[in-house]
Structures are given as C-alpha cells and as structure tokens.
C-alpha cells in the first residue's frame, strides 16, 4: 500500500482509492480503513491532514483544490458517512462521483448517520450496483473484493 496525504500531489500509475467522507468533528475513520487495506497494492489518497491550520483561509482553499483534483484522478472512491456530522461536502462529492460510471464507488454509512436513507435512495437511482454498507469493515471488504478482481469496476 502506498499512502498519500493531502496536500501531497499524486498522479502515478496503479489503482488508487480516494478516502472521501467526514473529517471535521469525526473520529479518524480513515486510519481504520487504511489499516484494513494496508496489505493491498493500492494507493490510498487521504484528504485528512495530521496538521490542518484551521485559522488559515488559504489552507482551506488549497485543501479543497487538492481534494477536487484527486477525486478526479482516483481509480475509485470510497465514501464513509459517520454519525457525528451530516457531511454536506461529502454528500456534494458523492452526487458528483455517482454520475461517473467508469469510476468504482464504495459507500458506507454508520447506522446512526442522519441522512442514511437519502444516501441509499439516491444511489439506488444513480448507481443501483453500489451497495451501501454499515461498517468500515464491510466497506474495506468491498474494496478487497474489487482489488482481488471478484468485483468488476462499475461501468
């Protein structure tokens, strides 16, 4: 596994997964997913930065731009919606990514995520092949199956 943290640029070869979802005010679910996928030959693109300068407006601009570029560059995108926040930006990103059929999606929501039903129903309309799961373990399992070739990339 190759780990890339924002704001490090990545545009290399091989399958890459962007870890999209809640960051502010949430537990570090990205670390959990990274640990579960650490033995796979994937590039994990993590927007959660260890040291984010919250009081610097230019830092937010750079972060948003990095996420935009890497969401497009990623082979696939994994979304996790935790219960602590509604994740409005992640919902926006999911809506955009759901329209790109050639980019595989892996989506999970905590059972207590307030907009779980919305995520499930909207995805059923846009990408019926995407199964929404309830744990990061199941989400990592979907990625493992895809990486092993048991799941074809969504078309």
From TrEMBL:
Pfam families: Nuc_deoxyri_tr2 (PF15891)
Organism superkingdom: Bacteria
Protein name in UniProt: Marine sediment metagenome DNA, contig: S03H2_S15817
Native source species: Gemmata massiliana
